[in-house]
Amino acid sequence: MTNSIPEFETDTNCFLIIGSNTSEGHPLIATRVLKAQKRGAKVIVLDPRKNQIGHWADIFHTFRPGSDVAIFNGLMNVIISESLQDEAFIAERTEDFEALKTLVAEYTPEKVAEISGIPADVIREIARTYAKGKPAAILYAMGITQHTTGVDNVKSTSNLAMLCGNMGILGGGVNPLRGQNNVQGACDMGGLPNVYPGYQAVTIPEVQKKFQDAWGSAGPLTVGMTVTEMLHATQEGKVRALYVMGENPMVSDPDLNHVRHCLEQTEFLVVQDIFLTETAEMAHVVLPGTSFAEKDGTFSNTERRVQRVRQAIKPVGDAKEDWIIICELARKMGASGFDFQSAQAVMEEINKLTPSYGGITYERLEELGSLQWPCPTVDHPGTPYLHKGKFSRGLGKFFALEFKEPNELPNDEYPFTLTTGRLMFHFHTGSMTRRSKKLDSEVPEAYVEINVKDAGKIGLNGHKRVRVTSRRGEIELGVRITDDIKRGVVFIPFHFAEAAANKLTNSAIDPVAKIPEYKVCAVKVEVF
Amino acid sequence: MIDYKNVLTTCPYCGTGCALHLQVLDEKLVGVLPAKNHVVSEGGLCIKGWNVHAFVNHPDRLTTPLIRKNGKLEEATWDEALTLIADKFGEVKTASGPDSVAILTSAKCTNEENYLLQKFARAVIGTNNVDHCARL
Description:
The complex is a heterodimer.
Chain A: H1 5-10, E1 14-18, H2 22-25, H3 27-38, E2 42-46, H4 52-56, E3 59-61, H5 68-81, H6 87-93, E4 94-95, H7 97-104, H8 109-116, H9 120-131, E5 136-140, H10 142-145, H11 150-163, E6 174-176, H12 183-188, E7 195-196, E8 200-201, H13 205-215, H14 227-235, E9 241-245, H15 249-252, H16 256-265, E10 268-273, E11 285-288, E12 297-300, E13 305-309, H17 322-332, H18 343-353, H19 362-368, E14 370-372, E15 396-397, E16 416-421, H20 437-442, E17 447-451, H21 452-457, E18 465-469, E19 474-482, E20 489-493, E21 521-527
Parallel strand pairs in A: 1-2, 1-5, 2-3, 4-15, 5-6, 9-10, 10-11, 16-20, 17-19
Antiparallel strand pairs in A: 7-8, 12-13, 13-14, 16-21, 17-20, 18-19, 18-21
Helix pairs in contact in A: 5-8, 5-9, 5-11, 8-9, 14-16
Chain B: E1 4-10, E2 19-25, E3 28-34, H1 47-50, E4 66-69, E5 72-75, H2 78-96, E6 101-104, H3 111-125, E7 130-131
Parallel strand pairs in B: 6-7
Antiparallel strand pairs in B: 1-2, 2-3, 4-5
């Protein structure tokens, strides 16, 4: 997030929420939005489903999954044609505005209505509300990113925010709501194939030398493989050994029949986890790691806030803290530089090598509770919102982006568009929440959500179970009829391994971010 | 004597970063209390946060290393498991190069653990084949 959660309640005057089921996915953030609404802030929600926060919104509309770029272009078309943009911000802080202006001129509300299904008048109303609602915050989640145009979608959000001068100010910004407790931290710490900790590129020789000097040895100057590429590479024998810590690709990755095939081909699979997950069942060696309650450390939340995790109980059975396991394995392989006596000692090394974490020490976290990066030195107060006065690249760049269709569209054989997501009561692959009695009893099994008119069309007629089939697989599951989902779209939560939505999803990826298109694929739904 | 304590920590579910107190009785988690003055959660929690203790002591927890023998995962000691992994990673690295090893770090683990695992990939194995589920 460019901005911070508390600002939503105190400073934001307009929220544009798109591709985020905020009240189920991030309930305590939704609370802030609704508190702001009480003091008069406007809430706009766009989603293929009328989710809970959609019901509370001042303006809500469904749209066709994958039409995001067209929607943003349409909003900008209205703003520019009605001269509602922030001319001073555009002149002083941005570049390439003319190219954007020329392109979005083509995206009239009428044209965008045809692409997205949002009526032209609603597009105009949303554009005016956002442009006049400064400071306005855009909130999004995987509904924006999990597309073959994911990068274009994200750039579109920043185009709109810059157009109205909503960057670098309290209560504004572009705010991806991250789905995992420490997905921000895993990225910050260099758990990515192209960067060392603190987003220092692996391709820069000076960076490589810095880590070589610190560690005695470093990675190559070439970018490594992403998770999707690793799995493909196991098939050709290019990847022979795979070490997975605390992830469950056998439920979380797209096109699971293919994932299974890849993992079966893997010559040596090591899985470190707290349960025998669907992925661990396929491993050659399984290492028992520990949950958050059994270890010390830090997590970094969606607003770059670093906070302490504290050990409450000893590791269960013979399990070990994951950081100790990694150190023991490294020492077993004869490596030096893995003699840490505590998680705090690891953070001290992170402080030295990661400029944005330079001042985030355990002592300060004890005193202050949390610190938001960038926080380069121990006397730096941390950074609640980014891009104040200047973007990290200098001028903010506008990207003129044409709308592109998703990779797979419905046809006569597969007439529905499937989109996937989470539920309030479950988390990701369900390995934790489905083992929590109270949570599991709320929603114990998978279902597909279908529009009431479509239910009639497929002849559901009192049947309780359906088969959903895509070009890649099929699953059988329960069904829920609703008028909160757009006609032609069906939704399946992906938490349930026995009816895994990801057997159906498309592994087509965004060419830059390599993110799979979970949010759009073509399926058929049949009663049986 | 009752051995009871509250331990202030951070919720392990979504990316909001709510704070909570784990209630520990005789080395077992028995419940959760919200953290009243926390900057993000302000004394609130969602239903997942209120139940965050429930999976930790679940009987399905893995409590010992396992090694596949004759197609089945069988219990092993830490030394057997780590020796086997170290030998195999070393052999693959020598025979096919560092890039024939790939590593997934975790959005559920701590910063310190993610730091160490990517350091392991880059400094010990010598590969940038390190990623996690940020996209998934």
